[in-house]
Amino acid sequence: MDARFTETLRPFLPFLEGDPITADTPLRELGLDSMQAIELMFALEDTFGAPLPDEALVEETFRTAGNLWEALLPALPETAAHATEAA
Amino acid sequence: MPDEGRAVLPAGTDARSVVAALADEGVVARLYPQGAASGLDPVLLRQLLGEASARGPQGLVLALLVQWATAVPLLADTARTAHAERVLHGALDGRTLLALAATDEGSGSDLAALGTRVRLPEAGSADGVLTVDGTKRWVTSATTADHALVLARHRPGRHFTGFSWVLVPLDAPGVTVRPSGTPLFQGSGVGHVVFEDVRLDREHLLGRPGHGLAMFARHIAVERLASAAWGVELCRRVVSDTARHLATREVDGTPLGRHPVVRQRLAECTARTAALHALWTTSREAVAERHDGASAAVLKATSGATVEHVLTVCAHLRGSDGFAADGVQQLRSEAGLFGIGGGATEVVLDTVADRLPAVLDGLTP
């Protein structure tokens, strides 16, 4: 998960407080309800300039930070994805 | 403020004819200067709704508001097939009237609980047929529109990814439309729509499967902006009419309008209307251009409370005259819509509560 992703995600998790975001971070338990998940999806699209793939539009995608990041990866431009993997 | 000296609304009280005439005069194109999917001109929309509200019936305002603030922009944002594009062009040309069927039987403003279903075709299936079943209630323009944008679930559960939009011709086999029977909102074409095994080809699917609630959330913000614009114009007119009426109605040789209590109540209504106007003015760009949901929710909650208060006070001040046909008491009943339609006050306050720190942080000079 790159910094832009976690920075975009953090404001949507009001109960996270100062804890780090990891792949296992549960999103719903930390305050991401369904309607706020919509705003998060639009925020990620704005940040990365790419929509989530159709097959990723399922509840499971929004269960953990890692699930969401994995779902987003195929939508990223190749250079951005490689840079993320290298980091 | 809209330029009141230059009316732009064509003659007529029928939504279809007004929509057609506005398109012919190029006003619809001015309403969407960057294209209907990229926001609208909120000041022009307010002027149109204000003129329609002054002319009446208020059902006309409702039909125009749904067409321009929600249905056309939503269709423009989701039209990905040749069929949807044709319907969109018809709406922009003023030949096609649209309805927006979101509110379900039973679930009301709780859209995540709606029961209307769409069965999507299997990926790669030969027939590509989708099927719609369910009931939508209180649909504006249901009895007059050509097509309805229908929000339906393609998957069980409350998660937002389980919903999609379908463009349903209201004369399709399996569609039944009934007038609502309410004596209010004449001219709105409000009714209930039943879908029974309505089979449509995949050209009728709007946008991406799973994006239905997301698209709704984006576009309902502009509907709330439009609703608040209507609310400001309604309050301005009703306070002004009430003040004029009370200036001529004498009690014991003195016009009621000079009574200190009456003056203060009218002044208080004017102050509340001015506050709503100020909020609308500061919110309009964020909502019309960026679909800012928090600003729209604050505006919707404020307009619901303001319109209810102003109409209640003015109806009281008009006394028994207010019960005349098409009098202010009927308007007051219709104004109850401001706290219900487009998301009940409790629903929009929930949205504000979710974003409390951001809303408060935004209140800086």
Which helices and strands, and how do they pair?
The complex is a heterodimer of chains A (87) and B (365).
Chain A: H1 3-9, H2 34-48, H3 65-72, H4 78-86
Chain B: H1 15-24, H2 27-31, H3 42-55, H4 58-78, H5 82-92, E1 98-101, E2 117-119, E3 129-139, E4 147-153, E5 163-169, E6 175-179, E7 191-201, E8 205-206, H6 212-248, E9 250-251, E10 254-255, H7 260-290, H8 293-317, H9 328-335, H10 345-354, H11 356-361
Parallel strand pairs in B: 1-4
Antiparallel strand pairs in B: 2-3, 3-7, 4-5, 5-8, 6-7, 9-10
Helix pairs in contact in B: 3-4, 3-6, 4-5, 4-6, 6-7, 6-8, 7-8, 8-9, 8-10
Report on this structure.
- The complex is a heterodimer of chains A (87) and B (365).
- With 87 residues, chain A is an all-alpha fold.
- Chain A has a single domain, classed as Non-ribosomal Peptide Synthetase Peptidyl Carrier Protein, Chain A (Orthogonal Bundle).
- Helix content of chain A is 45%, strand content 0%.
- Chain A contains four helices and no strands.
- The mean pLDDT of chain A is 86.
- By secondary structure, chain B is an alpha+beta fold.
- Chain B folds into three domains: 15-97, Butyryl-Coa Dehydrogenase, subunit A, domain 1 (Orthogonal Bundle), CATH 1.10.540.10; 99-208, Butyryl-CoA Dehydrogenase, subunit A, domain 2; 214-361, Butyryl-CoA Dehydrogenase, subunit A, domain 3.
- Chain B has helices at residues 15-24, 27-31, 42-55, 58-78, 82-92, 212-248, 260-290, 293-317, 328-335, 345-354, 356-361; strands at residues 98-101, 117-119, 129-139, 147-153, 163-169, 175-179, 191-201, 205-206, 250-251, 254-255.
- In chain B, the strands form three sheets. A four-stranded mixed β-sheet of chain B has the order 1-4-5-8, covered by helices on one side. Chain B has a four-stranded antiparallel β-sheet with strand order 2-3-7-6, with no helix packed on it. In chain B, strands 9-10 form a two-stranded antiparallel ribbon.
- The longest helix of chain B has 37 residues, at 212-248.
- The radius of gyration of chain B is 21 Å and the shape is globular.
- At the A-B interface, α2 of A face α6 of B.
